[in-house]
Amino acid sequence: MDPSPGAGTPLLHSAPPSPDLLSISPTITSRTPKRDPRVIRAVAICVVAVLIIEIGDFMRKAPFTRMLEDTVCRAHFTSLPTVKRWEPEIPEEDCKIGPVQAKLAMLRGWDLAFSSVPAIFTAVPYSALADKVGRKLVLFLAVAGIILSISWVIAAVFLQVTAVSLVAVVIGVPLAWHLMKTSVWTPMLLGLLLPLIGAILIPLLPDTLEMIKSKDNSYDPLPEHENATEDDSLLSRNDSSDESLPLSRKGLRSILQRIEDSKFVFATPTLCILAFSWLVSNIDTTMLQYLFQLSSERFQWTLAEASFLFPLTAIINFVVLIAILPGIYYLLTKYFSPITITNDLVVIRGSIIFLILSSLGTAFSGVPALLILSTLLFPLGVGFAPALRSLLTSLSPPTHTSRLYGVLAVLDTLGSLVFALAMGQAYSIGTKWGVHYYT
């Protein structure tokens, strides 16, 4: 029994971390990971696959927008009595007028919004299936969905993977600009072929799920949690009862159970607040979608020329993710705090400041130099999403990572849905106010 406290009893005890803290943030403890060859191979294949798929994606952006603009432009001019539908293609510079650009912005906003709807219903089931049947199959299904969505349109560790997708911008945009000189369909079709090539690499991935489970056997993130026994008994009862169910009902019940387990994100106030902050993690991508349309209309650039803003931001993004952010984390760890969570918060707050300054500069850019300067400032806030994801991952048990990412995917999609519609409507209203007032 502990002695009664007295005048000489210290106020602070040098006690080990409490089990509750470890259950919320197990990754705070210092554990040096070993380099597993399977992990290295998985990262390498993911990097190459993402690079190929992203090149195709950025090759489609400018020609797809140009195709939409041409369609809207034809619909606008064919409504006039002096223009007929069989006349030659309308020059792009003639389409930089308010009514055409307003309708184009609305179409792109609805396109981004509708493309986000399926992810709302598939994010959590996909994360549950990833834990159930393996991540390689689920990743292949996701890539197949991307390819099928592209075909439909034509017919009718965080920093590294994020950085390599930016290399695709530098390659894909200039290549699309060159191919668009002949036809907008050439980069569109090539953009469909590249994801097919990237999908071929997916079966070569080693499934890391079993490796993570084997590591978790030697490390229990909830060693003394008072509800652990109840949860284990509940899961065991569910598993035993599932044996008598058909395969389809068993799979549905498993997915529903995983969705129920994902509620841990909203059970902790800190995780809940940070998770809802993830709603705006994709706003920079949404803004960049309208950036080259804005510059094309405001400064009378062609869409192919304006699309060079993408590689410009991608180069700076790449430098920030590969050199500047790791350097900032190194300095913060050495001179500020050795705790990763604290450093993530500093990076998140600094990134938000740069995003706000860049957005204001873009909104009031009356000359190309100011727009380009604001564009160069924008990538300095690219650390927001990786740092926030790292913070959320650090605050969650390792065995719940897939479920956490499923919740984040739903929130990300909801944010994209809302901001796509809001920015499309705002852009459309801005064009009606005048070229000097819209954003």
Automatic annotation (TrEMBL):
Organism domain of life: Eukaryota
Membrane topology: Multi-pass membrane protein
Major localisation: membrane
Membrane-crossing segments per the record: 39-59, 139-172, 184-205, 264-281, 308-332, 344-364, 370-392, 404-427
Location in the cell: Membrane
Biased composition (Basic and acidic residues): 218-228
Signal peptide span: none
A GO molecular-function annotation: transmembrane transporter activity
KW Ribosomal protein (keyword) present: no
A GO CC term assigned to this protein in UniProt: membrane
PANTHER family for this protein: FI18259P1-RELATED, ZGC:174356
Keywords: Membrane, Transmembrane, Transmembrane helix
Protein name: Major facilitator superfamily (MFS) profile domain-containing protein
Keyword Transferase appears in the UniProt entry: no
Segments of this protein annotated with the region Disordered: 1-32, 218-246
